[in-house]
Amino acid sequence: MKKNITLKDIALALKVSVSTVSRALRDNYQISAETKKAVLDYARTHNFVPNRMARSLKEGKSRTIGVIICSLNNQYVAQMLEGIDSYCSEKGYQLIIMQSKELQEHENECIDLLYASGIDGLLISPAYQNTNFEKLQDLQKAGIPIVVFDRLSEHIHTNKVASNNFKGAYEATVHLINNGYRKIAHLNTNTKLSITSERLNGYLKALKDHHITYNEAYVRYVDFSTDDLEEIINSLMLLPDKPDALLTATDQITLKCVSVLAQSKYEVPSDLAFIGFSNTEMADAFHPPLTTVRQPTYEIGRTAAQKLIESIKRSGSPSDFETILLDTSIQVRSSTKKCS
Known about the structure:
3 domains; Rossmann fold; 6-stranded parallel β-sheet
């Protein structure tokens, strides 16, 4: 087996010091962009494998990042993880990924396990059930940087990255209004996280700006552990003044509604126009093709990882914290075509 090249080998080949090579590989600001590129190109070409254990001992860092998400069985989450993994790999960090399964108790266990594993920082998309952020606050007090992504909360002061949920819901509702729909129902989650209120408020503001009276009966909150989505849809369609359009607030609700509407024999969009927050690649394959609010999931993951690694490197103070909201986009398809 061919022996791995070392930092010294790279230094000799490029006629620079070993410390310069080491700093270039760690993306140190003291090294010029030209030197960094030369070192990285040489390292890749010669399949350089860093001695992670030696580096960890020297730096006092594990170069490992913990990630807590709701579930791995979710295309939306997978796209964010791809962004996280892309940036962390570039910067030489490994990931430990754990699932909360939407349970606060399980999320707390994940936090404890990751802390015991010696992570340098934590990326977390909080469980829908989460109403208590003391465990995360304790982690901060222990000196572990945290970035909250996708699902934000006002109960923790840290860096946060998500979609612009208000704007996405506002633009989705305006799209329906501009296509002639006035009786717009909205299905949301029953979580305390800001994702619910932001998307609800975007929907309400669009109605108000277009002088459409809010109908409380059109807004329903879904808890998949107790609620039957088919019953919720049927109850909306049995209202004396039934809705003519539907906006769903999450990927999970959106995809389940596609199935329920088809099974219940409702014609989209003649019975009910339909737009939902979803990043499914299958939207064009649905009958009819589904108009969606697409979120920049890859960018959310990559930006969250970038903010965390920056915090790990400089041990930023609370005054450095920011909330980054990335724009959504409307992918227009047949499910919201104009009223005839």
